[in-house]
Specification:
Largest sheet: 7 strands, parallel
Structural class: alpha/beta
Number of domains: 1
Helix content: 10-25%
Number of helices: 2
């Protein structure tokens, strides 16, 4: 199935998704355009644990973040999917925690990407993702299998100081292995 263009949610769609997030922690924003004020509303609606927003399940497949995507400190408790997402500006996941399977397959990170101190407790995939500008994985912890198959780093600046990889990395050559910068695609 071909990826369709992201559409701006109408007010009813937004209210329904936010009400569900408030009710049970589940959030779905497939194919939506998300600007700064909308992301702020989403993060405020999420339940809090020790002051951190919590999503029980989060699905942003095909969404487009039109401004900075700031998920710093967010706890993603269930399966999390950012497949085919377009981050048009910087994407911040500093100190975020991903408890279950997490997918960034086909995501395009158009600006600076910060995954510093993020923790991925289960399998994670960045297959076919594209990191256009500098990407930081400093102190990130990947406790499950992590996939970078056909991931593209055209900006060639990936910083992975003290990243922890506890399981198998697919493909076997990790973007963080030895803190080397990749040359082109992995």
């Amino acid at each position: 199935m071909a990826r369709s263009e992201a559409v701006r949610w109408d007010k009813a769609d937004q209210e329904s998704a936010i009400a569900r997030l408030e009710r049970d922690g589940t959030f779905a924003a497939d194919q939506a355009r998300i600007d700064g004020p909308l992301l702020d509303r989403i993060l405020k609606a999420a339940s809090k644990r020790r002051g951190r927003p919590v999503f029980n399940n989060a699905q942003f497949d095909g969404a487009s973040f039109e401004t900075d995507a700031r998920f710093n400190g967010v706890s993603f408790e269930g399966q999390t999917s950012f497949r085919d997402v377009r981050f048009q500006g910087p994407a911040f996941f500093r100190d975020a925690t991903f408890q279950e399977e997490t997918r960034f397959e086909g995501a395009v990170f158009g600006g600076f990407t910060d995954l510093t101190a993020a923790t991925f407790r289960a399998n994670t995939s960045f297959a076919r993702a594209r990191f256009v500008e500098q990407s930081r994985f400093d102190h990130a912890r990947f406790l499950g299998e992590v996939g970078f198959g056909k991931t593209d780093f055209p900006g060639r600046c990936v910083v992975c100081l003290r990243a922890i990889l506890r399981q198998r990395v697919v493909p076997p050559r990790s973007v963080c292995e030895g803190n080397n910068l990749p040359s082109g695609s992995v």
